[in-house]
């Protein structure tokens, strides 16, 4: 027995603290949370089947606290330190995202809980990017940036002590956990005082706005905190009435009866007043923005390949301009291309396109001929597994929009997962492995509860 606070509970304390801090820093965030709550309540009331499905998957309870945030880091040491910090809260790096395809000098992972139980308790995730100075053409400027970054310390001494303690002792006491959350929060705070002169800022900004955002400040300010909505189109439509202007098009798949993967939309960054070193007058910087998302079922590799093909075809046939022009044609093209994608849960499952989670309806029954027979008889229920990750093309669109353009850009890829993992000091977990394991484990358990050991024996290890 230990008297450690559970990492899931530390994560809940931390995500609540982040949300409170962001609400105080960015007033529009509070307005968005209220809007999403209202839309979610109306959606659940109008759709009892969806409500039942979310209840069954343990997702209804988590919905009100569900958020993802994003940060951008400057160095390998920072990334390794963030990995250790998030591990204290039960968040681990999942997936590698190459954003160079969109001309962005970053690559990323998502820190998130990885077991179904931990996800059900609080799925807080942080999309975490590392700047890639090797992609900056101006080598002298890249060196200046590296030298500036080498000077900063993004973790408080108190946070570092408590991370060491959590690693050495396998956890933190409740009192230490509360102190840890308060110390960790400091890393993500907004600093209106820049660490560079306005000349240096201008040069960094010229190289890339992202570089200026990462290099010019004391730490990796949280740049958005995204609530999950059950109806993104309803929220997008209601945003202007609350004084919020969303980007031109929703990223990801089109609206579907059986939602897949992830749909996201964001609204423009705030313009903040900053004080540059040695400057008498106040300067300006845009870093932070708002975003909402709707999550659908996670896709198996075959489903994901089909998604990627449909999306690429739509993007190629109907490009969106920097000012958002062509948005309506793009949505029409997207819907046309995705007509090829099955749009009901039963077919997504039978065609092997999406991941599900199984549960028994009632107790043991006589031996059945197959898993399908049990499903048809209503004894075994398959619920869609929510996609818990991100999409590189969508993420690039969110970055671009926040950097001031709705244009869709396609550059040549320069992925370097190995360099990212070296910086991280660990390998990123493959998301597919997690969904596959959750599906398999739930099916075994459900079949055992139904007394179908002969069917368990038939499940292949690869399934
Ligand atoms: C991250 C942008 C990507 C998402 O949800 O895909 C993103 C950033 O701007 O730092 O937020
Ligand atoms: Ni985001």
From TrEMBL:
Organism annotation: Acidimangrovimonas pyrenivorans
One family name in Pfam for this protein: HGLS
Claim: Iron is one of the keywords in the record: yes
Coiled-coil region: none
Stated name of the protein: 2-oxoadipate dioxygenase/decarboxylase
EC number in record: 1.13.11.93
This protein's UniProt keywords: Dioxygenase, Iron, Oxidoreductase
Gene3D superfamilies: Uncharacterised protein PF07063, DUF1338
CC cofactor: Fe(2+)
InterPro entries (alphabetical): HGLS, YdcJ_bac-like
